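Can anyone check this?
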Amino acid sequence: MEYVEKGISSLTELEESLVRTVARDGALIAITLCSITLVILIIGTAIYHWKHGTVHEEMVHEESERRKKKNLKKRVIVNNNSIKDAQS
């Protein structure tokens, strides 16, 4: 009878040990998958911005266009249709 009780006790300990091992391995697998997903997301975002530019570049482009228009407005037409820069 003692052997049967020890066997059941051993099986229970083995089962608990197995459950802990599977839980630990499952957590490691989940962390690994999340890390891989995050790395892929970061690399994808970097490639997208490298190919398509960023919002900052668009703002800089708009600013340069505005400056060009402002500089064009400073020129005035004087007698006999010649163009002269306006004095600030």
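Reply from J.R.: I decoded it. The chain has a mean pLDDT of 76.
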